[in-house]
Write a structure and sequence with these properties.
alpha/beta; four-stranded mixed β-sheet; 13 strands; disordered N terminus; TBL; Protein trichome birefringence-like 12; TBL_N; signal-anchor; transmembrane
């Protein structure tokens, strides 16, 4: 019995092991499959740095005589006469429109007017600022009209110029407010003017937006602001100076023009942040560079060039340290960048790409025989079709991209 009992005790563990082994193997296999499934469902992480977003503002102009023709011609009903360089027989218009802006590391497609207006259906786009934003607007209107030839002129809500596109129920308009702030001419009595030559002053209320746009911002789903070209002593010489007011009283000590611009900018940006609906997509277009050579607009300055500037010429023309005729653009841009860096307003930095295009202004082809004798060459605004069409391509891309991400 003892012998038999010992035999039972030695054989049972062996049977137990033989029965448990398959179960352990099966359990291990199931656990392995389970953890494999969990790992496959986890997102794959990588320490590779994602590519930076495309910078549409940095790149180069590439000449291509096969570049498709502009989307509009001299017959566009929204043209402004002095910028209609096709009708005014400006030389080199084919060459001007054979240069294409190619951003570094990415592509820039020409706007598809139908697609753009379809996405913007039942929405409105507003431009606020000086005549360079008007120049921008005219290009935009003529391009969008390709998708809706029934578009009609629109000047409601104190708009200076605009169009309504009934096929898509879209309005695109410009509100002229060259300083953005409210300002008014206050003449001096002629006796006083004769004493020191000062004919009067332009009163600028730095904390009050101009009437032309103060009450219309809620109408627009996209707004593009600018200011800068009027902030110079050529526009407001000592005989007719700007005098800055805040809360109804003169600012003391008095501000010079650039100091005044900074204070106005602070107040206008604050107003936009407070009063413009948060859902509105807001852009601030930086300066459009001028290309006067040999003197300013009122000093026989000229821009009769037949090709864009080279990269190594840009600083000679525009760096403020060189004290050239066209130095104000970069100086004003820096003030704007500093003010906007903590806001939701997006910078539309079209300055650099436009600095190259000294060849693309109306110059002497202004549509009126005596215009040059009275006003000088126009080396500030742009021929249409021309450089602003590229601005439109970029703006449209940014609008569509931002609407997708909302």
């Amino acid at each position: 019995m003892e012998f038999g009992s010992r035999r039972m005790h030695t054989t049972m563990p062996s049977k137990l092991r033989s029965s448990l082994l398959p179960r352990l193997l099966l359990l291990s296999l199931l656990l392995l499959l389970f953890y494999s499934f969990i790992l496959l469902r986890r997102p794959i992480t990588s320490n590779l740095v994602p590519p930076p977003p495309c910078d549409l503002f940095s790149g180069q102009w590439i000449f291509n005589p096969e570049t498709p023709k502009p989307l509009y011609d001299e017959t566009c009903p929204f043209h402004r006469n002095a910028w209609n360089c096709l009708r005014n027989k400006r030389e080199n218009m084919k060459a001007i429109n054979s240069w294409r802006w190619v951003p570094n590391g990415c592509g820039l497609s020409r706007i598809d007017p139908n697609r753009f207006l379809e996405v913007m259906r039942n929405m409105n786009v507003g431009f606020v600022g000086d005549s360079l934003n008007e120049n921008f607007l005219v290009s935009f209107l003529c391009i969008l009209r390709v998708a809706d030839p029934s578009a009609v002129k629109w000047k409601k809500k104190k708009a200076w110029r605009g169009a309504y596109f009934p096929k898509f129920n879209v309005t695109v308009a410009y509100h002229r407010a060259v300083l953005l702030a409210k300002y008014k001419w206050q003449p001096r009595p002629s006796v006083e003017a004769n004493q020191d030559g000062v004919k009067g002053k332009y009163r600028v209320d730095v904390d009050i937006p101009a009437d032309e746009w103060i009450n219309v911002t809620s109408f627009y789903d996209v707004l593009i602001f600018n200011s800068g070209h009027w902030w110079g002593y050529d526009k407001f010489p000592k005989e007719t100076p700007l005098v800055f007011y805040q809360k109804g009283t003169p600012i003391n000590p008095p501000l010079d023009i650039l100091q005044g611009f900074e204070v106005v900018l602070q107040h206008m940006v604050s107003f936009i942040q407070r009063q413009v609906p948060a859902k509105t997509l807001k852009f601030w277009r930086l300066q459009s560079p001028r290309h006067f050579y040999g003197g300013d607009w009122n000093q026989n300055g000229s821009c009769l060039l037949d090709k864009p500037l080279d990269r190594n010429q840009l600083d000679l023309w525009f760096d403020p340290r060189n004290n050239g005729v066209n130095k104000e653009a970069r100086r004003i841009n820096q003030i704007i960048k500093d003010e906007l860096q903590t806001t939701e307003i997006k910078l539309l930095d079209l300055t650099h790409l436009s600095e190259y295009r000294a060849d693309a202004h109306p110059a002497i082809w202004l549509g009126k025989q005596d215009a040059v004798a009275i006003w000088g060459q126009d080396c500030m605004h742009w021929c249409l079709p021309g450089v602003p069409d590229t601005w439109v391509d970029i703006l449209a891309e940014l609008i569509l991209t931002n609407l997708k991400t909302e």
